[in-house]
Specification:
This protein is mainly α. Helix content is 90%, strand content 0%. Helix 1 packs antiparallel against helix 2 (30-62). The chain crosses the membrane at residues 9-28, 34-53.
């Protein structure tokens, strides 16, 4: 179970770094900024998806 939480946190870190890169690259290279924006949104989606999956798994084991 601990590994699932670590991966959730990793997805959040990737999202934060990607959003930072979007802000830095926005005026320099717009295409690269869009790529990092995609990574950030995808990382946030994966965070919520993995968290939901982990909670379902925990609830199933409790019963």
């Amino acid at each position: 179970m601990k590994y699932f939480k670590i991966f959730e946190i990793a997805y959040l870190v990737i999202a934060v770094v990607s959003f930072y890169e979007v802000v830095v690259e926005w005026n320099v290279d717009r295409n690269r900024a869009y790529l990092f924006l995609f990574f950030a949104v995808f990382s946030l989606f994966m965070f919520f998806f993995r968290r939901r999956y982990r909670k379902k798994f925990q609830n199933r084991n409790k019963k």
